[in-house]
Design a protein that fits this description.
Elements (H helix, E strand, L loop, with lengths): L1 H11 L28 E5 L2 E5 L5 E2 L1 E7 L6 E7 L6 H4 L15 E5 L2 E8 L4 E7 L8 E5 L7 E5 L2 E8 L1 E6 L14 E4 L10 E13 L2 E10 L5 E7 L7 E6 L5 E7 L5 E8 L5 E11 L2 E4 L37 E3 L7 E2 L7 E4 L14 E4 L4 E9 L8 E7 L4 E8 L2 E8 L6 E7 L4 E9 L6 E7 L6 E8 L11 E7 L7 E9 L13
Antiparallel strand pairs: 1-2, 2-4, 3-22, 4-5, 6-7, 7-8, 8-9, 10-11, 11-12, 12-13, 14-15, 15-16, 16-17, 18-19, 19-20, 20-21, 22-25, 23-24, 24-35, 25-34, 26-31, 26-35, 27-28, 27-34, 28-29, 29-30, 31-32, 32-33
């Protein structure tokens, strides 16, 4: 895992700006979502499409999204509330699950039932979930050892298999109830060197398997990364699962890779992939697919097009982020907790119309704080504003609005010796630095974080207001960097941390964002 993360970091530092549409109202545009939705797996069930993705150490996890057109996606549920309870996921005993949690999933629809599987270095297991109703049905689940890295779930002749690996691709049959590898069977190698279609030295061996059967033939999608090059889509095909398999490069453009095939009711084909795009994260692109001599051909003349032959307007992230007045019976699906939440220390009922966050312990810093509530940032720009009542704070408490990643930043209220200050803390360097401090009179304050991802600007500025109308800048802009160990795009974060004693609380009155329905087109990718 450590090697894979190091390689990923090298790519992110070379990432280019997101490819977006030219001024063309005839079709949808790429990227279809300008936000962190990586490791996508897509299926069609009738005239609806569903997509799963990775959210790592966030909970609930393994998000399921729905779309009528492959372009505009709505978050409908998660596969699990908590993946596992251990020191890493509970943020205790100095442990954390940053960069871990659960990774690339495999979503499948088979004989009227929906399946989604994932794997986790945090649990050390492979996890499978299934339901007859993907939007409202109860999930059944099972898990087993070992952890099968970047696997693809596959059904054939009444049996269930997983294909996985890095470089060497293997396949194994599972028990029908997903309790483990089928008794009396052993994993077998189906492709000894899946990276072989790429000439030269391979920096990241073929992984991210997604296996399909189309017109009686088997197609396996992987990604690999040649040194000095970019993420590359590979496809292998065979007439039998046992091979022989032959492979070729399917796409090598702008580092857009990892994902798989999906067809439409009228017979068109697409691939849903993602591209690494700096601090905002890994964002999904929809790529047209044609078939030539039994091979899927991705893109148009080897490139991912700016516009698509789908006559809809992009809504960008409107279906996966949301404002919240905290007056509902529960939290909207767009929210995810950083690691496992502590239900006893957050509430929508303690003060109706507010989210109360109460400290449960003394923490060393922002990244150690439990019950931090997050939503995705998004491009091209994203603004988040909050209002909070700090009358319940105790000395040493720090609470406010942050940008969560390793090199984080936040604007917050800090209480010391009965006095309150508005502070801006910037961890864009090697250590967090308080860059500004302004005395606060009163119990209510408003904060804003304004992120700019245009042309990889990757900056966030912070502001405060005492009336919610007149805003004042505080501190210096945070220079965001997609670095380890988090392995995910920056997130807006609501938090309350204790540094002296537990038990203080703050009440968030609202969280407001304005997702852009579309975006202006920057220069096309080289």
């Amino acid at each position: 895992m450590r090697l894979r993360k190091t390689i990923f970091f090298l790519f992110v530092t070379l990432a280019v700006s997101p490819m977006t549409a030219r001024s063309d109202e005839a079709g949808a545009r790429n990227p279809v979502i300008w936000a962190d939705v990586p490791d996508v797996s897509v299926i069609r069930a009738g005239d609806r499409y569903y997509m799963s993705s990775t959210t790592m150490h966030m909970n609930p996890g393994l998000p399921i999204m729905r779309s009528p057109d492959l372009v505009n996606w709505t978050l409908v549920r998660y596969a699990y509330d908590t993946l596992v309870h251990n020191d890493s996921m509970n943020l205790v005993n100095g442990e954390d699950a940053y960069g871990a949690g659960s990774w690339a999933s495999s979503l499948r629809y088979h004989e009227g039932r929906y399946y989604v599987s994932t794997f986790s270095s945090t649990s050390g297991r492979t996890h499978v979930y299934w339901t007859d109703d993907i939007e409202d049905g109860e999930w059944q689940s099972s898990s087993f050892e070992p952890m099968l890295h970047d696997h693809s779930l596959f059904f054939e002749d009444g049996r269930v298999y997983m294909v996985w690996g890095a470089g060497e691709i293997r396949m194994v049959e599972l028990e029908p109830d997903f309790s483990g590898i089928r008794a009396g069977t052993e994993p077998r190698v189906i492709i000894a060197d899946a990276s072989a279609p790429i000439d030269g030295e391979i920096m990241l061996k073929a992984e991210g398997s997604q296996l399909y059967r189309v017109d009686g033939r088997y197609y396996l999608f992987n990604i690999a990364w040649p040194r000095g090059g970019m993420r590359t889509v590979l496809v292998h095909r065979a007439d039998s699962l046992d091979g022989p398999w032959e492979g070729r490069i399917a796409l090598q453009d702008a580092g857009i890779a990892q994902g798989g095939l999906v067809d439409t009711p009228d017979g068109r084909w697409y691939a849903m992939l993602f591209g690494d795009r700096g601090a905002v994260g890994r964002i999904p692109y929809l790529v047209p697919v044609t078939w030539e001599d039994g091979w899927p051909v991705l893109g148009e003349d080897g490139q991912v097009p700016d516009t698509l032959d789908i006559a809809v307007a992009n809504t960008n992230v409107a279906g996966i982020v949301t404002s919240d007045e905290f007056d509902g019976p529960g939290l909207p699906l767009a929210w995810q907790w950083n690691h496992n939440p502590l239900p006893a220390y957050w509430s929508l009922d303690a003060r109706p119309g507010f989210l109360r966050l109460t400290t449960d312990r003394v923490d060393n810093g922002f990244l150690d704080t439990r019950n931090t509530l997050t939503q995705r940032t998004y491009g091209p720009v994203s603004d988040a504003t909050v209002s909070l009542d700090v009358s319940g704070m105790r000395d040493g408490d720090v609470a406010g609005l942050g940008l969560l990643q390793r090199h984080y930043g936040y604007v917050a209220v800090r209480q010391e010796d009965g006095q309150r200050f508005m502070v801006m803390v910037n961890a864009g360097g090697d250590a967090p630095l308080e860059q500004a401090r302004v005395p606060l009179d009163g119990d209510v304050v408003h904060f804003a974080a304004r992120a700019d991802f245009r042309d990889l600007a990757d900056t966030t500025s912070f502001e405060f207001s005492t009336d919610g109308t007149t805003w004042t800048s505080i501190g210096e802009p945070l220079m965001m960097r997609y670095t380890l160990p988090h392995f995910m795009g920056y997130r807006f974060a609501l938090f309350n941390a204790a540094t002296r004693e537990a038990g203080g609380y703050v009440d968030f009155d609202h969280y407001r964002v304005e997702p852009p329905p579309a975006w202006d087109a920057p220069p096309p990718l080289p």
